[in-house]
Amino acid sequence: MRKLTPLEESAYAQLQREGSVLLAGDELHPMAQRLLRSWFDDAVGTIREATKDLPNDMPLDERKKIVDAAYSFGSRDQWPYKMWLKARRQYLARYGY
After folding, report:
1. End-to-end CA distance of the chain
2. In this structure, what DSSP letter does residue 82 have?
3. Within 13 Å and on the Cβ side, how many CA atoms surround 63?
4. pTM
5. What pLDDT digit, counting tens, does each position of 32-88 carry?
6. Cα angle vertex 69, ends 66, 73, to 5°?
7. Residues 37, 23: Cα–Cα separation, whole Å
C-alpha cells in the first residue's frame, strides 16, 4: 500500500484545515490533484502487473476477480479506493465492462 510521505500528509492536512481541498466549482486544489494522481498511478501499475499475462479472450467475470484480488491499498474507502475504482473501470472498459 502506498503511503503519503510526511510532507504530503502535512500539505493535505493543511488543505483540509483551510477548507481548500476543493476550489470553486468542485475543482480540486492543485496539491490535492497531485496527491490523488499518485494513488491513481499506483493503481494503474498494480492492475497492469496483475493482468500482464492474461489472455485477451479471458471472460470478463474472471478478469474482474483477478483485478479485485490485486487491490493492495488497505481498506476499501476514501480517496485511495476511489482512485482504484477509476483505474479498474478504465482497465475493464477495454474488455466490455
Report:
1. 26
2. H
3. 21
4. 0.64
5. 666 666 788 889 999 999 999 999 999 999 999 999 999 988 888 887 888 899 999
6. 135
7. 17
